[in-house]
Amino acid sequence: MAAATDWDRYYRAPFKVASLTRLVTTARLLQAITCHRPDAGGDFVEWGGANSCFIDSIYRNLQPLTYTVIDNNQLGLSLLKHRAIQHQCTYVLEDDVLDPQHRQQGDVVFSVGLIEHFDIAGTARAIQSHFESARSGGLVVVSFPTPTWLYRLTRWCAERLGVWAFHDERPLSFAEVEAVMQRHGEFLLRDLVWPIFLTQGILVFRKTS
To answer: What's the pTM value of the predicted model, to 2 decimals?
Structure first.
């Protein structure tokens, strides 16, 4: 069984190259949202967003009425509280995506790099939590690593160099994630982000009930 990712260590010393790849991921995330929700405003919920690297860009480009970040890592959440003080409509909640206690509702619910850290059943439960957090007609956006040849090669190199930190990461096929999301909503968009090497899939669905 793979060791759990040490998120405290990650938040204390994130990879330097991540600042570059996040620019690409952020641009594609914003594009995926605005393509199907052109009007600014609304309530946003980010699952697994401790010390979110997307919050500033979303406030700047999409002008959310509120932005709620939910995670179970205390260190990452505390770092975000200090960074997000300029955004008065930000709420930070400690909760578990596999057994959520809060019932936060958003017009846009998303996560980047979260649902792949569980087994098959856990991934399905995490996706379900996204839809439970969305209002009827709201967008649900998930981004996750998918096992292209480029992902496999990049990860292999990182593991051989001893710099791979996400030991429990399970790259996901589009088929697995779509099959779960189709239980809860209507398919809108499928995207694959190549330039970040650890290729990411993006799926956008609209909650239908």
So the answer is: 0.94
